Amino acid sequence: MLYIVGTGAGSREGMTIAAERALLDSELIVGYTKYTELLKDIFPEKEYASTGMRQEKERVELALRESQNRTVALVCSGDPQLYGMAGLAYELAESCPGTVIEVVPGVTAAFSGGAVLGSPLTHDFAVISLSDLLTPAEKIRRRLECAAECDMVIVLYNPSSKSRADYLQKACDIVLKHRSGETVCGYVRNIGREGQESRILTLSELRDTAVDMFTTVYIGNSETRVIAGKMVTPRGYRNV
Asked: Domain spanning 110-232 has what CATH number?
């Protein structure tokens, strides 16, 4: 049995009951090193196996092999479908006939971070990763352009790293072609973990803000505004 578990932000409070049950039911927990370290504080009695960044295939293959003989949980932060391992596990499971896979959803950073800021995702929105390790940069730019042009709220994952220090700035430049520099934006770093920090700011201010890989960025649409110090995107219920 292989559970593919979304653990949310990593704290027990942000984990669903179904995720906790799957982890308690598992004999081995497999995941990216940082995420397994977070879980060791919550489930110290469990056996763990981890791999580093860019070893996703090896991680999934390990989980599949081990699940032939015992119950295994392959963990992902947030939700295992959104930039997680669920899709890859199904792809690779073709070589492991008889493997039973159950995907256990989790609260992705877009929603848990949005709750910190207020309610920026009350209307249509797009989630876009700025990492070009697996997606061509031109395709990312085109997706940003389309989302900005149609006035959708945009949530950015993986907005920056040591090798991509200017990617958020470039993304903001694309959005600024279609939106005012006063557009309400926000970001949350270390969502649900120690050191959590957040800020609401304008698109022009966001352009010159330094962020890291543990930051989720929100770019509002033309109707997003600040209400009582919170970032809110109305859907129009008051006008009905």
From this structure: 3.30.950.10
